[in-house]
Write a structure and sequence with these properties.
352 residues; alpha/beta; Rossmann fold; two-stranded antiparallel sheet; globular
Length: 352
């Protein structure tokens, strides 16, 4: 499907008055907004590159078709590598320094296979093209993944970590359970209809740290999953994602797709009854979150609702400023891992 919504540069005037006031109170005024957006776009390009490296590293470590060597667990290999460094080198590595210690031989063999073998799968071809565009030393691709995995397992504040990490395309299907609960609440409290739907940041299965299935094509599972949860087919269904490879994968999906950055590019206003953004807003700092919520609010019709799973308190006052007050919050169990219950949440904002 061809997307019917053009992406346009976001302007200060496109933000509602209350959001502009919140930004100004935080020190971001109209005269500085273009420069702030330019810095955001520059950082987004860097974070897209880091995310591409993570996906390539997870693939080369775990693929069963890349080599006959057994798959390697990314977190375990990251821990082994970190433990091979002395304390000073370990701290320097986590802060971005290139280490002197060599990568282990099993990782090296898989890294060589990733770069030297002819791609036998669509995923290998796409990820090698993504990695090639980085023009980084091969080891740096693995280092980027190791850094994130070790920082994630440490004591760093999760919100701060995700606001700085590479932009991942991992769709994390369990989060659709939260969407399901949010939709159940909406349709129990509001009249069901054929909504116009915007799905922001659906991601695609390029390569997850939790496993790679080489037999599957590169797909974005969220659009079809969302359609199956709606009581009626959507009247309009559009998807936006910041990563072009995800947009390319959406050509096989039921939504029209376009590459768009929620913070710096304007969505067509007043078009949607429902917007959904899971595992997306968590990547934004508070100023970016304020702008993204105002952008999403502008895209919604009066009475339209936004569903997301970012539990930060900031989403409440910033949503209110964007004319999207929170009307429902609910924790959602998404199963167990290593004997512990895993919780997600669903937050519902509705426009008056």
């Amino acid at each position: 499907m061809a997307a019917s919504l053009p992406a346009e540069p976001l302007r200060w005037i496109d933000l509602n008055e209350s959001t502009r006031a919140v930004l100004a109170q935080a020190g971001l005024v109209e005269s500085e907004f273009p420069a702030w957006l330019a810095r955001h776009n520059s950082e987004a390009r860097s974070r897209l590159a880091a995310g591409a490296a993570e996906h390539a590293a997870y693939f080369l470590l775990q693929s069963r078709q890349l080599t006959s060597d057994p798959p390697l667990d990314p977190a375990q290999e990251a821990r082994k590598f970190l433990n091979s460094l002395n304390p000073a080198a370990r701290e320097a590595f986590l802060n971005g320094a290139t280490p002197a210690a060599p990568i282990s031989e099993p990782v090296r063999r898989r890294m060589d296979a990733f770069w030297k073998s002819k791609p036998a799968t669509e995923r290998h071809r796409i990820l090698r093209e993504m990695a090639s565009r980085l023009e980084w030393p091969p080891e740096e691709i693995v280092y980027r993944a190791f850094r994130f995995l070790m920082r994630r397992s440490g004591n760093e504040d999760p919100d701060h970590l995700f606001q700085r990490r590479g932009l991942s395309a991992d769709p994390f299907p369990p989060s659709m359970l939260a969407v399901q609960k949010g939709l159940e609440w909406l349709y129990a409290n509001r009249a069901a209809a054929r909504p116009s739907v915007l799905l922001a940041g659906p991601g695609a299965e390029l390569g997850s740290r939790f496993g790679i299935d080489d037999t599957l094509p590169v797909i974005s599972p969220q659009p079809a999953a969302l359609v199956s949860l709606l009581p009626n087919p959507p009247a309009v269904f559009d998807c936006v994602d910041i990563r072009q490879e995800v947009v390319d994968s959406l050509r096989r999906s039921p939504c029209g797709a376009i590459r768009l950055d929620l913070v710096s590019e304007r969505i067509s206003h007043g078009r949607y009854d429902l917007a959904i953004a899971t595992n997306l807003l968590v990547y934004l700092d508070d100023l970016e979150l304020a702008v993204a919520l105002a952008n999403l609010s502008g895209a919604l019709k009066p009475g339209g609702c936004l569903l997301h799973n970012d539990s930060r308190f900031a989403a409440r006052p910033l949503g209110l400023a964007a004319s999207l007050p929170v009307v429902h919050f609910q924790p959602v169990s998404i199963g167990t891992r290593q004997g512990r219950e895993q919780l997600d949440r669903i937050v519902v904002h509705c426009k008056p």
